[in-house]
Design goal:
By secondary structure, the protein is an alpha+beta fold. Helices cover 26% and strands 35% of the residues. The relative contact order is 0.12.
């Protein structure tokens, strides 16, 4: 073996050792790198599901991933969650890897807590001008529910997130809207949801309607919408579903609740 060939072989073997060591070092750090990437990605995903005007004063303690964030307008005085009057409020559902005690401790640090209305599974109090409710129903649950109620004196009937509301349904003039919500849902790759419910104005209903007025409306809208794409009418639940372009639409005529429910969704 000549000297020149021997030196080339040594250089080649040395390079192989260096490359092998470099590959081993990548394998050793890659799990942490993967975690950082996943964390950054998760943070980015959460930003996608944050409504633009959600109060910055309210930190979602221990949040790993937002499941849904919605803004509600409700002026139904028969409702059990009005806190004394018509309200605008945010409703957030998120997952956490922290135990309930740690999550609640974090909220208590930023809240003026109403101890009489709080319990092991729920904290009620104020953060700044907002009435805030935080619930985690089971001690080992990884799901946290947060409601943030805006000051009652600032109530607005028009949902500020409905600026792009799709006008896909002809609302009967005898229906009165009592609640609307706009939501971002972390499912099916991300969805936007418009949701409403209406009650009937009994004084304006036609005299020829039966005692089951919502059944009459269900039949009327079944005939009106039957040519829609993917139209399905479920007589048992009085629910209508169809698609309209990028939107999926559901209407339910509930005799039990005395309401008409409308839900419109599209992909984000």
């Amino acid at each position: 073996m000549n000297k020149k060939f021997f030196l080339s072989l040594v250089v080649l073997l040395f390079a192989i050792v260096l490359v092998g060591g470099w590959m081993n070092s990548i394998q050793k750090v890659s799990p942490e790198a993967t975690k950082r990437i996943e964390s950054a990605s998760k943070k980015g995903d959460n930003q996608s599901f944050m409504l633009s005007d959600f109060p910055s004063e309210i930190e979602l303690a221990g949040m790993d991933e937002i499941e849904s964030m919605k803004f509600f307008v409700n002026d139904d005085v028969s409702s059990g969650y009005l806190f004394g009057g018509p309200v605008n409020y945010y409703n957030v559902v998120y997952s956490t890897s922290l135990p309930r005690a740690a999550v609640f401790a974090a909220y208590r640090d930023s809240m003026n807590v109403d101890e009489e209305e709080s319990s092991d599974s729920k904290i009620l109090g104020t953060i700044g001008e907002y009435l805030v409710s935080v619930s985690q129903y089971e001690e080992d649950s990884d799901t946290v529910y947060v409601q943030a109620v805006l000051p009652l004196e600032s109530f607005e009937k028009e949902n500020p997130y409905f600026t792009d509301y799709p006008e896909l349904i002809e609302v009967d003039p005898t229906w009165i809207e009592k609640e609307s919500s706009y939501g971002l849902l972390n499912q099916k790759g991300g969805e936007v949801e418009y949701w409403q419910y209406f009650i009937l104005n009994e004084d304006e209903l036609p005299a020829e309607m039966s005692e089951q007025q919502l059944t009459d409306f269900y039949q009327e809208y079944s005939e009106m919408l039957q040519e829609k794409t993917d139209f399905v009418a479920d007589d048992e639940t009085q629910k209508l579903t169809w698609t309209d372009g990028e939107y999926s639409v559901t209407m339910t005529f509930s005799n039990d609740h005395g309401r008409v429910y409308v839900m419109i969704r599209k992909s984000m």
